[in-house]
Amino acid sequence: MLARFREAQLPGINRLRRLSAAGELPAPMVFPGREGRPSFARALRAAGTPAVIAEYKRASPSCGVINLDLTPADVARMYAENGAAAFSVLTEEAHFQGSLDYLKDMAFAGKPMLRKDFILDQLQVLETAATPASALLLIMRMFDGADQVRKMLDLSREHGLEAVCEVFDEADLDMARWAGASIIQVNNRDLDLLVTDLGVSRRLVRTRGQGELWISASGLTAPAQLEEMADLGFDAVLIGTSLMSRPDPGAALKELAAVGLERKARRVAERAAEREAAR
Fold first, then answer.
1. Tens-digit pLDDT profile for residues 217-265
2. Alpha-carbon gap, residue 107 to 218, rounded angstroms
3. What is the rounded distance in angstroms from the CA atom of residue 157 to the CA atom of residue 83?
4. Cβ distance 113 to 89 under 8 Å?
5. In terms of pTM, does the model score above 0.85?
6. Are the beta carbons of 175 and 146 closer than 8 angstroms?
7. How far apart are CA 51 and CA 48, in angstroms?
8. Per-residue b/e over 50-87, b at no fewer than 16 CB within 10 Å?
């Protein structure tokens, strides 16, 4: 599956190489103020645990067409109004019917956005820097080693982008850490069988390191699952298909985002009670 995804990226990468050779790569997007791009990690940490990264996803290899009727702007509005801490935006065209333009279409909602694509080349990082995205996805299995990933991380940081390093197993996790990753996303999907298993998240999160931000992705559909991921130590969850396949993605998101918001409210109340008792 990853080989197919890699092959599908080559025409786009070759186009970027031609633009680069001609000095015509788009310039990095300029953000007013000292803050620069909205911080993806800060938004997740400020939300309830688990924060929900809500994904705009029109189609996928495992599900086929999911929802072509709702525009990116429609979904951005629904997600922003119903508890999303951030957006994930599928921009891959060949297998997911995505587009880089969707990042621009959803930026009005003011949420940090993750560009979710199969990013292999440094020119794709520069391409992302020319969009309103706050973060990009780096899939460890798409790279030959940690040195390659480290170069992508360094270039991303240079342009104010945060990198979400996606792992499927312990070897991927080791590579991400050797490269200096700070945001770890565990993908629960077996790419050969196209089935999901939350046991992957349960196993890998046991090794969570100090200061790391952890995200669980794929196969999360119910509030009880989000409760479990938060209890295990995940800061956030990424949810796409189970939202986009519902008639009202906003209502579906509201039910799931309530888990983190209610947990946050309980923590605030507990701390207030502790301060009161200490007086």
1. 999 999 999 999 999 999 999 999 999 999 999 999 999 999 999 999 9
2. 24
3. 27
4. yes
5. yes
6. yes
7. 5
8. bbbbbbbbbbbebeeebbeebebeebbbbbbebbbbbb
Tokens of 48: 């309830």
> The tokens of 258 are what?
């309530």
pLDDT tens digits for range 156-166: 999 999 999 99
DSSP 136-197: EEEEGGGSSSHHHHHHHHHHHHHTT-EEEEEESSHHHHHHHHHHT-SEEEEE-EETTTTEE-
* Sequence letter at residue 122: Q
Least confident of 10-24, 49-63, 204-218: 49-63
Type of residue found at 118: F
Single-letter amino acid code for the residue at 191: L
